[in-house]
Amino acid sequence: FFLQLFPSLLAMATCAGWSVTTTPAPLRHIASEAQRNAVAETTSNAALPEMLFATAELKIQHGETNATLTFCAQDALKEWARENAKAPDVPIAAKWQESRRGTAAFDEAKPPRVYDWTFTTPYAGTLEGGTFQATSSKKINREMLLARDPILFYDEVELYSSELDDTGAVNCSVKVRVMPRCWYVLCRLWLRVDGALVRLRESRIFCSADDPKTVVRETTWHEGTPETLAKAGAPSDVRGGASSPYGDADATAQALGAVAPAAVVKHIVESAEL
């Protein structure tokens, strides 16, 4: 929506009949109260991440078919609300719920609303003009991705993040890279609940000029507690800090990738034919 209002401000590239656009970095500001209220209404939940970037958006559109793949915070949080997952049953959960007392999300006259306070979403983009279906015949061309082709465009768009009231951290973001022969997206949800849980949900989306009407999506979810991580041979010290193996999303990806598939709880490859 934002990109439609301000087309002259777009950061943009093209590849294989696709246009790739993102909201420019200076305009990806933290959501205003009105914007937060709008997202709260669509998710039916007033409790939202404190760092919400309502104007941030990545849009990839196929010129011939008008098929569109979009990534934005509102859709990511819609998926979080729709999944309505059970919140992790960890000791600090009660502390987090108590910290909500006195906020707009807490009503003294009613029992506390139970919801996933980690903001873990299954979001992997919103596709219009096509449908992703499981496939065993399509895959991401990693040789093409690793080739030393020039990078025509690169951007990283943060959708939302939270420090979970100092009990950990969560971040949802999307990276895009455009080369002469293909484009590639990494949509990532990273979560760390200190001393209790780590999650990494990654969706890689790929399209090449060799087959521009086929989009391939590979989704992998990693998850572990200190106990299960230790059994898998991964670091079990789930905490923050610059030296922590789970201090940020990239460090977590490296730590969990080293022991895969031990910490993998879901893996699926899908494709959409336009």
Characterization of the model:
The mean pLDDT is 89. β10 (182-193) and β11 (197-208) form a beta hairpin. Helices cover 20% and strands 34% of the residues. The chain starts with a helix and ends with a strand. It has seven helices and 13 strands. It is α+β, with helices and mostly antiparallel strands and 274 residues long. It has helices at 2-5, 33-43, 73-83, 92-99, 142-146, 226-232, 249-257, and strands at residues 11-15, 18-22, 51-52, 57-62, 68-72, 126-128, 133-134, 153-162, 168-178, 182-193, 197-208, 214-224, 264-273. The chain has an eight-stranded antiparallel β-sheet, with helices on both faces. It has a five-stranded antiparallel β-sheet with strand order 1-2-4-5-6.
What can be said about this structure in brief?
The chain is of the alpha+beta class and 274 residues long.
How many β strands by DSSP?
13
Helix content: 10-25%
- Low-confidence region ranges: none
N-to-C SSE series?
HEEHEEEHHEEHEEEEEHHE
Instruction: Give a short account of the largest sheet.
Output: 8 strands, antiparallel
Q: Approximately what portion of the residues adopt beta-strand conformation?
A: 25-35%
**What would the principal axes of the Cα set say about the shape?**
globular
End-to-end C-alpha gap: 23 Å
Number of helices: 7
Q: Which class do the helix and strand fractions yield?
A: alpha+beta
In spatial order, strands of the major sheet run 3-8-9-10-11-12-13-7
